[in-house]
Amino acid sequence: MGQYEKSAKELLEHVGGSDNISVVTHCATRMRFVLNDDKKADKDKIENMDIVKGTFTNAGQFQIIIGNEVAKFYNEFTEIAGVGDASKSEAKQAAKQNLTFLQRLISNLAEIFTPIIPALVVGGLILGFRNIIGDIPEFGPNNDQALIELSQFWQGTFDFLWLIGEAIFHFLPVGIVWSITRKMGTTQILGIVLGLTLVSPQLLNAYGVAEATEIPAWDFGFATVDMIGYQAQVIPAIMAGFVLAYLEIWLRKVIPNVVSMIFVPFFALLPAVLIAHVVLGPIGWVIGDWISDVVFTGLTSSFGWLFASLFGFAYAPLVITGLHHMTNAIDLQLMSLFDGTNLWPMIALSNIAQGSAVVGMIILNKRDKEEQQVSVPAAISCYLGVTEPAMFGINLKYGFPFLAGMIGSSIAAVISVGSGVMANSIGVGGLPGFLSIQAQHWLMFFVAMAVAIAVPIALTLTLAKTKMGHNAYERLGKK
Predict the structure, then answer these.
(1) pLDDT tens per residue across span 270-296
(2) Which residues contact 118 (CB under 8 A, 6 or more apart)?
(3) CA 195, CA 192: separation in Å to the nearest integer?
(4) Residues marked as catalytic
(5) How high is the pLDDT of residue 84?
(6) 284 with 306, same domain?
(7) What is the pLDDT of residue 208?
(8) Do the strands 30-35 and 21-26 form a parallel or antiparallel pair, or are they unpaired?
(9) C-alpha distances out from residue 395 to 46, 370, 456, Å
(10) Over the stretch 393-436, which tens digit does the pLDDT of each residue have?
(11) Same domain membership, residue 120 and residue 189
């Protein structure tokens, strides 16, 4: 008898049996099911299993949080259930059959940015470190010099690190177009080439367009095309990437296999590059500027506190729906226009607030050893930027801690936006997030962090004594 045989058989029964499983796979902590009939899954019984930390449905997949032992459990489950092993891509394709158009759009956006997020996080940390050694005049005999003014070592380090920062952010379109071709199953090297044509040194750098007295152009005799680069631009890269991918997919259907290796790349790449620079680039630039201006103006206007409070309150529910992935594109667009983003600090604060609500539950349930096995790791992972165990395993299960986290996040967001806190880039969405904050804003971000920690803990302890808290405990059989 395997270690998890009993639990695997129990779970199989509760999800509706093998016949109800279309696809099953797993990630670092979760089992991901695409079920033929979601109604056959008994969520209450599944959540009462000892091995299960929580459940939720997202992107058409019924997901069950198991924890670090998920891989071993998954192996025993698939053997007992008699279902074949499936890749994550197969699971996503099957799940998309259950999605609406808007959900598919958001899912596609998430799949584009997920592979490049590690680079963006690294870039944010590097920019933050450069900010510390290059822009803080708090060193030297009179505490009025930056580190780069005091030491050639720090000056060299400052200059060297920009090699990585430039590669990540200035050449971001390359990563975006590559990610689109990867997602669409088309030729990835063509995506890289298209991305490079958007940031070629031949072109006028996007950061220099506003100050340029004359825009260079390609002259075709009957028409001219501006030679403008799209460094750090998100929307032009997304639009160009999809044009390339769909062109290649169509060409592979109409061009014979015998000559496809020659003609498909040529007739896909050449028109895509031309369309990108003549049509999509200028249009995407205008759209991106418009979105960024609206968000930035909203956050810095006299009503910025209202925008911040609503975003801080609503971000955690957005995570449940998957809509939070849309903020990545907005953050990157803000960075390209304003040398930073005032949106991302609120995201980090929301994660901290949800983790703090779990800390409140740890205090409330300090005598419940079984609950502590779930809540303590969940709080730690949430403070490090992974919110799912906290939100789905604890906060949503009880309800009132989730609300406490939302309120704490809202207040912290108002403080962050009201004091003008800016991040260099997307970073680690938890306590280490301060490393991505521009150094001159650290103090106020720490104040906002303190609020995001204290308020949810206090509110969780308070709400537990109300009718909402009592009802939650009774519903879960805790009292």
Answers:
(1) 999 999 999 998 898 888 778 777 888
(2) none
(3) 5
(4) 27
(5) 61
(6) no
(7) 78
(8) antiparallel
(9) 17, 16, 11
(10) 788 888 899 999 999 999 999 999 999 999 987 777 788 888 88
(11) yes
Q: What are the φ/ψ torsions at residue 336 (nearest 5 degrees)?
A: -70, -30
Angle at 328 between CA 379 and CA 393, to 5 degrees: 25
For the record, the structure tokens of 228 come out as 């403008």
- Distances in Å between the Cα of 387 and the Cα atoms of 269, 316, 382, 383 are 40, 9, 4, 8
Of the residues 71, 98, 125, which one is the last residue of a structural domain? 98
Instruction: Look up tokens 């879960």; give the residue.
Output: 476
Is the same domain home to 247 and 308?
A: no
Could you report how far apart the first and last alpha carbons of the chain are, in Å?
Answer: 35
Eight-state DSSP code of residue 56: E
Q: Whole-number mean pLDDT of the chain?
A: 83
CA-to-CA distance for 278 and 227, rounded, in angstroms?
10
Its domain, for residue 430, covers: 301-475
pLDDT digits (tens, 9 = 90+) for 61-120: 788 888 767 888 888 898 888 876 554 455 455 555 555 665 566 666 667 877 887 787
Do 141 and 201 form a contact (C-beta atoms < 8 A)?
no
Q: What is the pTM of this model?
A: 0.64
123 shares a domain with 85: no
132 and 62 co-located in one domain: no
Report d(CA 465, CA 456) in Å as an integer.
14
**Does residue 360 share a domain with residue 247?**
no
SS3 228: strand
Contact 238, 176 (CB under 8 A): yes
For residue 426, give the nearest of 212, 132, 118 by alpha carbon.
Answer: 118
DSSP-derived pairing of the beta strands 217-219 and 30-35: unpaired
Q: What pLDDT shows up at residue 475?
A: 67
pLDDT given for residue 472 in this prediction: 78
Q: Do residues 230 and 236 touch, judged by C-beta distance below 8 A?
A: yes
